[in-house]
Amino acid sequence: MISVNNKEFLFTPIGDYIIPAEKVAHVQLGNNAEHALLVLTKTGYSSIPVLDAQDRLQGLLSMRTVTDSILGLAHIEYERLPDLKVGEIMKTDIPRILTTDRFQRGLDMLIDYPFLCVVEEDGTFVGILTRRVILKELKKYIYSA
Ligand code: AMP
Q1: Which domains does the chain have, with CATH numbers?
Q2: Which of 22, 41, 45, 112 should be mutated for ligand 1, with most atoms under 8 A from CB?
Q3: Which of 41, 97, 105, 144 falls 20 to 30 Å from 32 in CA-CA distance?
Q4: Exposure of 104 in the CB half-sphere (CA atoms within 13 A)
Q5: Quick check: helix, strand or coil at residue 38?
Q6: Residues 127, 131, 132, 137: is their CA dihedral positive or negative?
Q7: Residues 88-101: pLDDT tens digits?
Q8: Which residue, among 111, 79, 117, has the nearest Cα to 98 in the 3D structure?
Q9: Nearest Cα to 117, choosing from 28, 14, 32?
């Protein structure tokens, strides 16, 4: 078991560790699945946030979700991509964390997810908290203990 004597860092606000919204690739509810596929492919991210016109978080979209939505019985129906809206196919049951939450909550939740969407109380999307950033921070504390 790792022993880190000073555990104060667990209570620091997550604010400092957030990748801000303007640096996060995302899609809009009304975008079509073809556009979403392009964004996912070009950025190389496995999953990205879906926002509404007021920048509120509505869901997540992954490459798998897009592929699933056009999976026919015999082949993948690429021709349906322009007609499908992101809002119809996105995953809405997603983990989220508040800007006011602490490092410890982020750490606990990131055991199950590669990244978390960070929102204000009213759902406004602020950015993401990634497992990578939190692990780096944890490493700093462990090595300096
Ligand atoms: P990483 O921590 O870079 O390995 O990212 C883990 C996951 O977080 C990626 O696969 C994406 O789903 C998401 N992610 C990380 N950075 C971004 C970003 N700038 N824009 C959108 N999604 C991101």
Answers
A1: 4-144 (3.10.580.10)
A2: 45
A3: 97
A4: 6
A5: helix
A6: positive
A7: 999 999 999 999 99
A8: 117
A9: 14
Whether the pTM exceeds 0.85: the reply is: yes
Distance 12 CA to ligand 1 centre (A): 22
Which amino acid residue places its CA nearest to atom 12 of ligand 1? 47
The amino acid occupying position 35 is H
Distance CA 41, CA 52 (A): 21
Structure confidence by residue, pLDDT tens digits, 89-139? 999 999 999 999 999 999 999 999 999 999 999 999 999 999 999 999 999
Determine contact, residues 105/97, Cβ cutoff 8 Å.
yes
Atom of ligand 1 nearest to the CA of 24: 20
